[in-house]
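thread: overnight batch results

M.L. [08:02]
morning all. the overnight job finished for the chain we discussed friday. pasting input first so we're all looking at the same thing
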Amino acid sequence: MNKRYLAKIIATDKEGLQMISACCSGAKVKIGDIKFLFSNKIFLLSLTRNNVEDKNDREINSICKFDYVDKVKSKNIDQTKQDLVLKLAGIDYFRNKDNYEINLIFDNNAYISLRTETIEVRLEDQNEIK
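M.L. [08:03]
and the structure it wrote out:
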């Protein structure tokens, strides 16, 4: 019996965030699938990515969840175009006094910056696209 398991990666440090960035590199993100839940301090990113872990190039729908997010800024992203698809180049961060700034870097010089008090990121696969 050949069972397939969906990935769930939890990052709480630099190495974990680099792992999630590597898995999400080249993922497609629709602008309408980006949500910031201000009262819950959660930033959600629904993406379609290649399954780089198994090297079989199958596309997988995944959710990338960032917890404890205080502030979100974006640049070069037209939020009125809900059907526009961006390509995620990578995820980077740096320490800024007492907070972290996590940057989601997209193609065409677009990015989203998240200010958070701690690194707590989850990448959960939802289903495999047939």
